[in-house]
Each structure stands twice: as structure tokens, then as C-alpha cells.
From TrEMBL:
Belongs to the metallophosphoesterase superfamily. YfcE family. It comes from Propionispira arboris. Coiled coil: none annotated. It comes from the Bacteria. GO terms for molecular function: hydrolase activity; metal ion binding. This is Phosphoesterase.
Amino acid sequence: MIIGVMSDSHGDYQAIEKAVKKIGVVDLWLHAGDCCTDAEFLKTLTGIQTIAVAGNCDWPNPQAEVDEFIEADGLKLWLTHGHRYEVKLNTHLLVDSAKQQAVNIAIYGHTHILENRHYGDVLVLNPGSVARPYFGAPSFMKLRIEKQVVTVEVLFLP
């Protein structure tokens, strides 16, 4: 299974279009919030199933849940924006929650900073921001999951 992952698009449809062109074929898109309504644009643009979560900028009327759990090739993925887990300070609460929920992969946004790190048995991913990175170029991720082996590719926009 190939999964495209983006976050923090903040209404920048041009950035979303560039990401779609760059990534190639995917089976599923995940959007980690801010703005979760951009996921509708992504779904319309690609015709691919898109799962989104609400971020801190999606209030007071979020059109998505704050957490989504997805099964992919026998692995449990948790998609959240991260603002409820104080990820701008550190990922301790996020990792602890992932372990309590028996999650294999925790995907979050909010910080606009890339992360691809294992904390014990939990792979923690942040695709950065496809539109407004705090450092470097806009970024997003492509995950390949085959036989419960995960390969993460970070992609950058010019």
C-alpha cells in the first residue's frame, strides 16, 4: 500500500496540486489537519480516498474528527493533528498515547517541522507543512507499507 501524507496546507491549493503531481500514484491520502477542509479538495483533485483530522485552525466548526485510526497491511496507524498532545514542546504525550493505544505509526502535524523517528516500537511521523514550513522547503511524505515493513520517503516542493 502506498500512502500520501500531508499536513498544514492552510488553504494553499497550489501547494496541494504540486504535491499531487510530484508524488505519483498512491492508494490513500492522509491529511493531518490545518485545514482539514483542504482534504476535500485533495479528494476531488485525485479521486483517491482521503482521510483528514481537524487541527487547531479548524475550530470552531471542524469538519473532521480530531483522531482517526487506520489499518494498513496489518499495522495500526493513528492520524492526529497533535495540538492536544503538546507536540510543540515535545512528543512525549503523543508517544505515550500511541503506546497505550497499541499504535504502530503515529502521524501528526501542527509543528510544521519534519519528523521521522522510532520511539521503541512506535514510528512517529510528521510530514512538515506542504504550504508553510518553519524551516526549509515545503514537505510531505510517501509511505510504502508492504508485509508490515514501512518505508518513508520525504518529498519537497520547490
